[in-house]
TrEMBL record:
Protein's name in the database: Carboxymethylenebutenolidase homolog
Keyword Cytoplasm attributed: yes
Chief location of this protein within or outside the cell: cytoplasm
Source organism per UniProt: Psilopogon haemacephalus (coppersmith barbet)
Record-level Gene Ontology MF annotations: hydrolase activity
Keywords linked to the UniProt accession: Cytoplasm
Localization per Swiss-Prot or TrEMBL: Cytoplasm, Cytosol
Cross-referenced Gene3D superfamilies: alpha/beta hydrolase
Gene that this polypeptide is encoded by: Cmbl_1
Protein family (similarity comment): Belongs to the dienelactone hydrolase family.
Pfam families: DLH
Length: 245
């Protein structure tokens, strides 16, 4: 198992020199990274970044991966120009920083992105995937936004929301067994509420031995036993999207 000491190690990885195959665009009041497949498609995925922001190469790598699987992928700046968290920042200030970046306050930006995907990209079936902070945002959207078809929440911080179970759309929750940010007790509570209340398809999966951020990093310093779970998580994400989009 990879050994991380920080509360949110999503930035760890070997993708910092990854430039991406897409382009940056301005959509009304927000910037976004967009990547399109070579063949026209009516399917699109909104990629919601973690605390390290929309320019993190690890996240752009994931957007490009979605595109290679036939989706228009767009990663907007959901911090809307506010500075992303930096690995050099003082973690003692993190809670105050996060208060100004609420994962449940992205509806205006999502509406802008949905309009762009429909009018400029020809998208008719749209889903969302998100990592860490973005995973929590996906859960919010699956609870609130009727325009989306499905979502994948990857190690989303589920304690952000009291109403966790009345999902509108099929949702796949990916968690890491050794996540120091999301206790397994929280995962168990979420799963119990889903069993009691959820009316749509859902899945909760815990990946053995893995730590927070494992799916959207491709590390060269990981132990060999981590790699299959990284690949499995990505395959599971794609398969879920393929099923519902």
């Amino acid at each position: 198992m990879a050994n991380e000491s920080r509360p949110c190690p999503c930035d760890i990885g070997d993708r910092f020199d990854y430039g991406g195959h897409g382009q940056e665009v301005q959509i009304e009041h927000i910037k976004a990274y967009v990547c399109r497949p070579p063949v026209s498609t009516e399917k699109a995925v909104i990629v919601i970044h973690d605390i390290y922001g929309w320019q993190l190469p690890n996240t752009r790598y994931m957007a490009d991966m979605l595109t290679t699987n036939g989706y228009v992928a767009i990663c907007p700046d959901f911090f809307v120009g506010q500075e992303a968290w930096k690995p050099s920042n003082d973690w003692a200030t993190f809670d105050e920083w996060r208060k100004t970046r609420d994962a449940s306050k992205i509806d205006k930006e999502v509406d802008v992105v949905l309009k762009y995907l429909r009018e400029q990209c020809g998208a008719k079936r749209i889903g969302a995937v998100g990592f860490c902070w973005g995973g929590a945002a996906v859960q919010h959207l699956m609870l609130k936004n009727p325009q989306l078809k499905t979502g994948v929440s990857l190690y989303g911080v589920i304690r952000f929301f009291d109403d966790r179970s009345s999902l509108l759309h099929p949702t796949f929750f990916i968690f890491a067994e050794k996540d120091q940010v999301i206790p397994l007790e929280d995962v168990a509570q979420l799963e119990q509420k889903l069993k009691e209340n959820c009316k749509v398809d859902y899945r909760v999966k815990i990946y053995p031995g893995q730590t927070h951020g494992f799916v959207h990093r491709k590390r060269e310093d990981i132990n060999p036993q981590d790699k299959p779970y990284i690949e499995e998580g990505r395959k599971d994400m794609i398969n879920w999207l393929n099923k519902y989009l």
